[in-house]
Design goal:
mainly alpha; single chain; 103 residues; 0% strand
């Protein structure tokens, strides 16, 4: 169960990161509200997952899901550049997540 909570916490991190981009400096109401709600949900689920998972493992996987997810959303929907160096960076993050899970 803690791994499922952590997965959803990571997915909500992607939501709040993308919503934060859409707030235009917190001047747009709905993206700001979505960001706030998803941020609270993400932190809450992370805290619940940390009851049973080690801090380093939980935090690393949470941030990794958020980083790679935000990277993917940025490329697919926000027109961000897909360069070889960015792909290598994302692959290294995913590799780190797998190693952390196996450890």
């Amino acid at each position: 169960m803690p791994w499922i909570l952590l997965l959803f916490a990571g997915l909500l991190e992607i939501v709040w990161a993308v919503a934060m981009k859409q707030t235009a400096g917190f001047t747009r109401l709905w993206p700001t509200a979505i960001m706030g709600v998803s941020m609270i949900g993400s932190f809450g689920l992370l805290a619940l997952a940390m009851r049973d998972l080690p801090l380093g493992t939980a935090y690393t996987i949470w941030t990794g899901i958020g980083a790679v997810g935000a990277f993917t959303v940025g490329i697919m929907f926000l027109g961000e550049a897909l360069t070889p160096m960015r792909i290598i960076a994302a692959v290294l993050i995913v590799t780190g997540l797998v190693v952390m899970k196996l450890a």
